[in-house]
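Quick note —
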Amino acid sequence: MTRSSLLLLASLALSACQPQPPAVPGTFQGAGTTLATVNGEALTSDMVDAILRSLPAQIKQQIDASGDQSPLIDSLVASELLYQQAVKANLHLDPLVQQDIALAERHALAEAHARKVVQERMTDARIQSWYDDHKVQFAQPQLLLAHIMFADMAKAEEVKAQLDAGGDFDALATANSMDTMTAPKGGEIGWLELAQMAPPLREQIKDSAAGSLLGPLQMGRTVHIFKIKERRDVQPLAEVRDDIVAQLEQEIRQEYLDELKGAALVVETYKSPAATPDLPAGADQPGAAPDGAPAAPAAAGDAPAAGAAPALPARPMPTRPGRFARPGSKAPVKSGP
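Predicted structure written out below.
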């Protein structure tokens, strides 16, 4: 082996023994579509997906329904600007910031596991069972109501005559209603509870059968013809499923936490400190002198006892996400399982 090869191997061995600088946290592994760049750094669709995964189901559904993710992207841009400045300032080397990062990592892992458990236990059968057990809260008399709105009674009576002669309600509503929101849908307003209706209309409509026409009725400055398309006494599962899923998510999480607590040894010393006898200082330490007397310090340079293993230099150990280090300590302190 040549001298240069020996020097190269020695250099590699030496560098391997040297402690490596900590990696900069926040490096995002993704290959999604680039949505924006900040000082050359790409913000991708993977990042938006990660944010959406962390949001409550109802908020995620609202964002999906709107089709507008620009607020999330704006938030990502703002966060990236601050993140880049924090890295430049080496804040990730600050012990207190490292604690914040460790707690964030622990929270992310805990939430990922909780979501996995919820997904596994959120079965169709369980949703159906919850609906059946709580059906009383969905038992509200409702009507699928449609209307045609007019500016005056004369026009309303003209259209009412066409309806009485067999005219199609949906077509006449689309052609004549002043309500631009419902006219394209054949005048359909949607499912309404009787309790949501104005008292005069509620009194006239509460005993009417499906298919009935009411009006023309003067209501304020406008005139209306109403049609009851359908009636029902209970909201179907399909319409309340999202609300049930949101409720069940919380129940499953608590159920699983109760299971974990029941199988774990949790000592809440802040609530009930363990009663321990008062011991002299140092008496609970291995090798302490009797009666609390201070142990004799080891003389500098003392040799290890016969048969004892020689001391070895400390070697850096790989860490896992979420290891928590106290400020001033030289190594992470394990604070959880």
